Amino acid sequence: MRRFAAVGLLTVGLMLAGCGAPSEPEPVRTDDAPAPDEGRELPGLAVGETQIGDEGEYRESLLGAVGLEDGRLVVSSFSTDDGEELDAYDSATGELSWQLTASETEHLVSSAGLGEGRLDFSSVVVGPESVFVGYDATRCGDAAGDECADGEDEGARQSGVVALDPADGTPLWGAPVVPDHVDGIIDRTASIDVVDASAEVVLANVRGEGSEDGERVDVAVGLDSRTGHVLWAQQDLVAAFVEGDVVGVSSGSPSSPEDAVLGGLDAGSGERLWTVGDGETGMWAVDGHPRDRLAAAFLPAGELIDLHTGEIITAPNAPKPMLPQFGRAEGGAFAAWAAEDDATVLYSVDDGGEVIRGGTALENGIVQAAGDDGYIWVASDDRKTSVAVDRTGAVRSEPLAGRLLALAEGIVVTISDDTIRLRPYAAD
């Protein structure tokens, strides 16, 4: 499960704040909406509700990553009492399974031989198969993990990634990245941000001051998801996502991200596969995670891009994809987004480049997420409720209070009134 929180300069987040009782949406259909057929019409959904923990209360403005993996709902957040913390709940019962505060991870980091430090819960990716967290530490003495004696020099700064078991929070591996695998950065200035993961590769971005001129340096890093082995590191690139065998990266002026050039790397080797643009293509839009062959650029003009080739996908009569969400359905991957008139959702399906102008379920609707079961989750015009629609634009669930935080097959996670709720769903 991918995190829904914004990551770095490359994520375009949907800040759909709001709370309150759900209101009944008004369907809006266009004249050219397709007739329902077996491939697009889906059954209605019955949606339940499970409250997490004792109260499930989290200040929405202080939430970090939220994701579902291996029967756990994992939430990173900032608490005024305990600072950063990571909570994991049983996704079936809502009961707390395990919890870590940042201060409690000091022993975890040192016992793994990574030095004296702690995990950084502002840098978290949930799944697949692990919870990946960045860390910062100091190494003293001749070996990582040696304690820093009183009065001793600060020691060498180290940053890297730790993988936790979603079931119980125990560490699976810890991998130093800076300075072991990244050259040209002053280690005490380095920070690491874990941005995405697949079953094979974890992506992280390292940023710091250059050792030669003091200018900012960006390095994209790929690690083996199962072992933490660093597979590759590419300077002057910022990683956005990994989908299948392709990593999406951006390069360009850090002060002008809209002038970035987009590219695709081989996920295993870091070798460049293709490049799009000459400094005028823009940033990746990765809030809606790419699926199969489909990805999208956001600035300065939205484009759908074929991940295998880097070619721009041109769909007849289709407006630019504004903050698209990607899912799968019968026939392959699709992208869904709201058109400029805010009253129509379009779906681009990769079974031959078909474009479906389906009519939205909600007036002024905002597409929040698309699942691998073909359902699309849309926010209402007041941004306080969400409903599921199918690819005909028909409403397939009762309105749910709050905005979506995470989605996995059979479960959506919402927040309203600073309360997180698990909402299991099934065909009615």
Q: Could you explain the architecture of this structure?
A:
By secondary structure, this protein is mostly beta strands. Helix content is 1%, strand content 45%. The chain has a single domain, classed as YVTN repeat-like/Quinoprotein amine dehydrogenase (Methylamine Dehydrogenase, Chain H). It has one helix at residues 106-111; strands at residues 45-47, 50-51, 63-69, 72-79, 83-90, 96-101, 116-126, 131-139, 156-164, 171-178, 191-197, 201-209, 216-224, 230-235, 238-243, 246-251, 261-266, 272-276, 294-297, 303-306, 312-313, 325-329, 332-338, 345-349, 354-357, 366-370, 376-379, 385-389, 400-401, 403-408, 411-416, 419-427. Strands 1, 2, 30, 31 and 32 form a 5-stranded antiparallel β-sheet that branches.
Total number of domains: 1
**Could you tell me the number of beta strands?**
32
Largest sheet: 5 strands, antiparallel
CATH architecture: 7 Propeller
Helix percent band: under 10%
Question: From the helix content, strand content and strand pairing, which structural class follows?
Answer: mainly beta
Can you give keywords for this protein?
single chain, mainly beta, Methylamine Dehydrogenase, Chain H, five-stranded antiparallel sheet, four-stranded antiparallel sheet, 428 residues, disordered N terminus, globular, 1% helix
